[in-house]
Structures are given as C-alpha cells and as structure tokens.
Write a structure and sequence with these properties.
The chain is of the alpha/beta class. 19% of the residues lie in helices and 32% in strands.
Length: 149
Amino acid sequence: MNKKLLGIIIAIVAVGAIAGIVVANQPEKDNAATHSGSGSDMEKMQAGETKPSANSSGGAQDLTMQTEVTMDISDFAFENKTIKVKKGTKVTWTNRDSARHNVFSKDAGGPQGELLGQGESFNFTFDTAGTFNYTCEPHPYMKGVVEVI
C-alpha cells in the first residue's frame, strides 16, 4: 500500500473518531415520560401545581409561583435535587420504583414520611422558611433539598 493511501485512511479514521467523541458528549434531550394521574398537565398547571423539570445545573429549581408541586421518586433518585418554594407550598412525592422509599428530614419542621410502596404518595406542606435537607432512610445516598422562602 502506498504512503499516500495510508495517510488518507488514517485521516478518515481520525475524523471518524473525533466525530464519535463529539456526538457522545452532546447533552441528551429531556424526554420526560408522561405519568398517568388525575387531570391533565395543563389542568394541574392552571390549578397552580407543577412538576419540576430535571435540573442539572446544580441550582434550585425555582417553583415559588406554585402552590402545589409534585415530584416522582424513580431509579433510586428524587426527581429534582433542589427546589425553591414559598411558605405554604404543598409538595407531593410519588414512588415510581418497585423498591420502598420515603422522604425523611432530620431538620426540625421538615418532612418525615413513612415508607411508600410503588405508586404510593406522601405530601408535606412547608409552613416554615428555611432549608430542609431530606433523604430516603433505606437508601441514604438518595438526597434532596427544599428551600422555603
């Protein structure tokens, strides 16, 4: 094989490898699954209830305009790591996993829910301003934060 042809082949392989790396490092689009429940998403939003979107930026998802918030527990994680709400906001967590989970805070005035089976929900109304860290007791690596203003 001559050197020119070998050089072209190496260049093509290098370009292909670089393109593969670029594609692999692109962020995935959010393909949120639709969950069955009472009322449409539009009806819930009009009623002041919302589901927080995934928040990978590390900051709190600002939900201070909402009076009710719903979050799923799935894949051994809380749907949103940190949310910010106003005093009086009701937050409802629903367990979508087959494993049992709970929402438990050691912070005074925070949620202390019982273990939930699949499809079961727990709600808590945050009536005190502050930062409430919570975990799942059987799975302490599952963590979340509610900032209440």
